[in-house]
Specification:
- There is one protein chain.
- It contains 1 helix and 10 strands; from the N terminus they run αββββββββββ.
- It is 27% helix and 29% strand.
- It has a domain of 132 residues: Pili subunits, CATH 3.10.610.
- The strands form 2 sheets. Strands 1, 2, 3, 4, 5 and 6 form a 6-stranded antiparallel sheet that branches. Strands 8-7-9-10 form a 4-stranded antiparallel sheet, with helices on one face.
- By secondary structure, the chain is an alpha+beta fold.
- It starts with 8 loop residues before the first helix and ends in a 6-residue tail after the last strand.
Length: 197
């Protein structure tokens, strides 16, 4: 019968060192996975915010109506669709849209006046309670972290960086380019309803 053998101190120390290296690597991998999951969650939230803003813009612009509004002083607006530039102080887009929801069948119009603005790197939307003469409510922020923006309007087959306006026409389409934090450069086009007189 052979005598019982144990581990030497050197073998125990080598085993502990190897176990320590494996544990440290496991902790590093778990930490990286947790960080990646947090970054992915933030990017998915940001992408969801962008998709909701895009869907609302598309819904509003696809329902644009050819209708002049009255200001609070009773005078009529000059254009049926106001198309500005991101670097101007006024609205980026201002127009009347059809299809306002009325789930309770209240006695009111299905038209709604909406304005989009880019203010301090945020895309904001406001909608008036009444089309004519009503004061706009506080704007709702749809998207923040806008580094730069550019807009172009399609009319008569040509893209222009400004909208000439008018009482009898709308742009055929709008192109909006944004530089967004955590997403990058995004270019999107929105069709407007074809309106002929």
């Amino acid at each position: 019968m052979s005598p019982a053998r144990g581990f030497t101190l050197l073998e125990v120390m080598a085993s502990l060192a190897i176990f320590g290296l494996i544990a440290a690597a496991g902790v590093a991998v778990m930490g990286h996975a947790a960080d990646s999951q947090g970054v992915l969650r933030e990017r998915m939230d940001r992408l969801g915010e962008f998709q909701r803003a895009r869907a609302l813009l598309r819904a509003d612009l696809s329902q644009a109506a050819l209708r002049l509004v009255r200001r609070s002083d009773g005078s009529s607006a000059r254009d049926a669709f106001h198309g500005g530039r991101p670097d101007e102080s006024g609205p980026l887009f201002a127009f009347v849209r059809r299809g306002r929801e009325n789930p309770e069948a209240a006695a009111r119009s299905s038209l709604e006046y909406v304005e989009y603005r880019i203010v301090d790197g945020r895309l904001e939307r406001s909608a008036r309670a009444a089309v004519d003469g009503a004061a706009p409510p506080p704007a709702r922020v749809l998207l923040d972290g806008i580094g730069s923006a550019r807009v172009a309007y399609l009319s008569d087959g040509l893209w222009n960086d400004g909208w000439r306006g008018g009482t009898g026409n709308l742009p055929q389409a709008i192109e909006l380019e944004l530089e967004l934090e955590a997403i990058g450069h995004v270019r999107q086009r929105f069709l407007l309803p074809g309106i002929t007189q």
